[in-house]
Structure formats: structure tokens, C-alpha cells
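Workshop exercise sheet. Pairs work together: one partner reads the sequence aloud, the other fills in the structure field after running the prediction. Swap roles for the next sheet.
Pair: D.N. / O.F.
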Amino acid sequence: MIRAIEKQNVVDEVYDQIKSHIITSKWKPGDKIPSENELCQMFNVSRISVRSAIQKLRGLGIITTHHGKGSFVSPSVNEVILNGFFPVMNLSEKEFLDMMEFRETIEFKCIDLAVQRADEQDIQEIGQALQKMLSNKDDYVKYSVHDYEFHFCVVKASKNDLFIKLMQAVKEPFSYYLEELNRVFGVSEDSLKGHIDQYEAIRTRDAQKAKELIEAGMKENRQKIQQLKNK
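Structure field:
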């Protein structure tokens, strides 16, 4: 879940990783975060870098430190309005809604066709893309590349050349959309499980289940984005 840091600006990197764990609720309000020594080992950085990052988070009211007990995620972190803390979605509302409509029409139809037409190689390719996602769950950029690959493999399994060409034509905006979601909200366990369940639904020829899973994921993303707008 935590990767060693090799970049020059280590304080900002430590800060960003701790912040990401809080935003994605891996560390929830009231949770005790690892000790300074543990964080030093996790990030492979000096104690000074860890202390500076913690101090920055403490100054924002995100972390509270109790002498002799350690540092904790602030119980009121979800109520804190911090423009510099909560990430900005670099995707307009129209771009987001356009992608929702695209997925609810083209992608859903491709799932119907994939369930009818997918052969063993198609299923294997979808599964391979899924494994790449799981292997890169700690790197949202690489994860997003294979996230697109997963959805593209489903479209390929439809055996409809026009849909395949259309998916290739929208690769850039579709990939950007996925990367922004994964950057802002992090690669959550729900996202991982959702893709695993989608794969199983397609493998077992259950189109309705696969579409319901995607629809549930999109609904959750809409709610998260609305929450960001209300901050």
C-alpha cells in the first residue's frame, strides 16, 4: 500500500502519500497512524522528512498528535474545508456526464454482445488486463492504463468492428477520465472488487450483473464528485 520514495522532494512525497491514505479512508478519522520510525521505514526516508510532513498535516488540522500516544487522523477531518487538501477534479461536469452517457449506451451494449460472443481468448485477455490492474494498484497512473485496457478488451469481445474503432477513437478522453477518478479518489478496494466481479460476471455470461456493477460504480463516483463540489 505504501511505496518507498526516491524523488528529491521527499517531504512533499511523504505528505502526499499520507494525505492519499486519509482521502481514500485507508486511515479513517480517529485512526492512529504509524509511528515516526515505522513511517521512516515504510517510505525509506529520514525522520526529519517524516516530521516535516506530519507537521504540515497537523497545521492543516488533518492530524492531531498526543504526547506519549502518537499521531491520529483528526476525528473531524471530514468536516474540514481545505482547498489545498482535497484534490481538484480536472474534469468538467459536462465531460464527466458525457462519459457517463457514453458508458451507459456503448459500453453496456458491448457487454451484452461480449456475453454472447466472447471466446476463451477474449475472456483470457480481460482477465490478463485485470491482473495488471491488481499488480499496479499502488500506482494510479499505471493502474489507469490497464483500467482502460480492461474496458477495451470487453469491447473487443463484442466482435463489433465499429464499436472497437469507436473505443479506440475515444481512448484519450476515456483514459483521462479513468485516470482522474483514480487520482482523486484513489484505487479503492471497492474499485478492485468491482472489476473482479465484472470479470466474473462476463466470464459466467451474466450481462445484467456486469452492467449493474458498472452502474453502481458510476453512481458512487457521482456522489463522490458531488461531495467534492460541496466542500
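Discussion prompt: The longest strand covers residues 63-66. What would you look at next?
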